[in-house]
Design a protein that fits this description.
This protein is α+β, with helices and mostly antiparallel strands. The chain has 10 helices and 6 strands, in the order H-H-H-H-H-H-H-H-H-E-E-E-E-E-E-H. The longest helix is centred in the C-terminal third of the chain and has 41 residues.
Length: 320
């Protein structure tokens, strides 16, 4: 449904109301599949509907230069797969589903992630990818009850929201095409190559997400360290492994015995020092990332937005 209306919009522009109505309907069907109806108050559903529909449209708005959609999608999907397969969160979704999407993004990268693109995602590609990623992230959030996983989409989120705020301050129609995103100024006004800009966005998001997964997720029962009299051991996923002795693990700590040796619990990951992995850490990390990204966006715009105004002035003079 959502792919069909996006494909039609690629061929012939559709009214905003029609497109949004179809997107809302598709999103409600997703919520039904996720089992959200009956389990949440109605106003939760309304808020989730607005956020998720805004997310897929933001993903579409960000698809403006070569490589940014497949590159950023990989930066989101890879940490989602790691969370699914390598942490105590477990298989909140079938890992093969994420693997297939990673392969699809890699194949599309060959055609799009280059200086002269062979093909483009269009609305059908970017919106469909966004819809699938939204589904995966929603499954993860519902499985854990943890909204801090929105950090996996922080770069696009900050750029999109602040650009909308900026355009509202300029009294512009936010549904009309424009060139005011930070990545657009980097590629157009600063003359940076599309591949470079796309790589920067992908690597920043990937770095943010991997740090979050390692410190914020693996830090909860992810990897423990054990040390004992007459032996040493490791504990993965909160469980211990013993050779010729006994073992037990809890909360990221492992008790491991070798040849009957007694193990001592070391809570959490050594590198984390017992701080990472807590719910407070994850939400603090999310807030910190958002604040830093907002500061970078504002500083960049203050320094470079005049270039965009000069470009618009030149276009207006040429048209006259």
């Amino acid at each position: 449904m959502i792919s069909t209306i996006s494909f039609i919009d690629d061929i012939h522009s559709t009214p905003d109301g029609v497109r949004l109505a179809v997107q809302f309907t598709a999103m409600l069907l997703m919520f039904y599949q996720l089992g959200m109806f009956g389990g949440f108050p109605w106003w939760y559903i309304i808020i989730a509907l607005i956020i998720c529909t805004g997310l897929i449209n933001a993903y579409n708005f960000m698809d403006g230069i070569n490589g940014i959609t497949p590159g950023y999608s990989l930066a989101v999907l890879i940490p989602l797969l790691i969370v699914c397969m390598c942490t105590e969160v477990g298989k909140y979704i079938e890992p093969a589903f994420i693997v297939v999407m990673i392969l699809a993004a890699l194949i599309f990268s060959y055609f799009n992630y280059r200086r002269v693109a062979i093909c483009f995602a269009g609305d059908i590609g970017s919106v469909s990818m966004a819809f699938i990623i939204t589904f995966i992230v929603a499954k993860l959030i519902l499985a854990t009850g943890d909204l801090s996983y929105f950090v996996l989409l922080a770069v696009y989120g900050v750029d999109s929201i602040l650009t909308i705020v900026h355009r509202l301050m300029l009294h512009e129609n936010i549904f009309r095409a424009h060139r005011k995103h930070m990545y657009q100024l980097m590629a157009n006004e600063l003359g940076m190559s599309h591949v470079l800009v796309s790589t920067i966005y992908a690597l920043v998001q990937l770095g943010i997400s991997l740090v979050f997964v390692w410190l914020g997720v693996v830090g909860v029962g992810g990897v423990g360290a054990g040390a004992g009299v007459g032996g040493a051991g490791v504990c993965a996923g909160g469980g211990g492994v013993g050779v010729g002795g006994s073992s037990a693990g809890a909360g990221g700590g492992g008790v491991v015995g070798i040849s009957g040796g007694a193990g001592a619990v070391v809570d959490g990951v050594g590198a984390v020092g017992g701080f990472g992995g807590t719910l407070g850490f994850r939400y603090g990390y999310l807030c910190g990332v958002v604040l830093v990204l907002c500061a970078v966006y504002v500083i960049f715009m203050k320094k470079n937005y005049w270039r965009h105004k000069e470009t618009l002035r030149g276009i207006a003079e040429d048209s006259n």
